[in-house]
Amino acid sequence: MTQQLLMIEDDARLAAMVGEYLRQSGYGFSHAADGASGLAALEASPPDLVILDLMLPDMDGLEVCRRIKGQGSDSARTAVLMLTAKGDPMDRIVGLEIGADDYLPKPFEPRELLARIRAVLRRGAEAGAAAAGGSHKVMRFGSLEIDRDARTVSVSGTLCELTSYQFDLLVALAERAGRVLSRDQIMEAVRGRELEAFDRSIDVHMGRIRSAIEADAKDPKRILTVRGVGYVFAKQQD
């Protein structure tokens, strides 16, 4: 089945160029020129991934992302790739914190956009395969439970909201509990593929994971920072 992409972008020329390129690459493609019509299109026919410009004429793109990824939303599992202004890290950080799966600064090369789309969709496919697969693999660290097959994380029975990539990062740390890992080692453990090398926001993702699983993200007990080196996942936890 052809994977469907929705681009929410007010630049008609850019959308036409991107649409032609992605269709030639084998994807279904639709376009919405503003946030309201994009949300309506998503509700009518949910795509596999949304390419979301953060500078929209009718509403903040971050608000659009927030609605897509909102808790209890039917579209919460839809992947979101943000298009951000070059050199504006705050939008990128906020977007990742509210659940966006990846980002790409403008202007961008179509090949890089395609690579990022494939990487995000691949992670989603791997998540689905794991959830439908065989043996049940649950890691427990005190009140924290990580179910690798169901792709869920819970603390004291309460589910934690993480993106697919953040889940993979957490698993990579948990599988190596007690070992200090550099950022490069963590990313290599997650991706194992060169296409994932575009992600340069591991600290933002770690902050989001801490917000989800720590009692106090400012005083973490599960994921500890080793200054000048990287991170370590605590073996002993409450």
From TrEMBL:
Sequence positions bearing 4-aspartylphosphate: D53
Domain named Response regulatory: residues: 4-121
This protein's record includes keyword DNA-binding: yes
Residues of the OmpR/PhoB-type domain: 136-235
Domain of life from the UniProt record: Bacteria
UniProt DNA-binding residue ranges: 136-235
Coiled coil: none
Family matches, as SUPFAM superfamilies: C-terminal effector domain of the bipartite response regulators (SSF46894), CheY-like (SSF52172)
Pfam family, one: Trans_reg_C
Keywords assigned: DNA-binding, Phosphoprotein, Transcription, Transcription regulation, Two-component regulatory system
InterPro entries given in the database record: CheY-like_superfamily, OmpR/PhoB-type_DNA-bd, Sig_transdc_resp-reg_C-effctor, Sig_transdc_resp-reg_receiver, WalR-like, WH-like_DNA-bd_sf
Name the record gives this protein: Response regulator
Organism whose genome encodes this protein: Polaromonas jejuensis
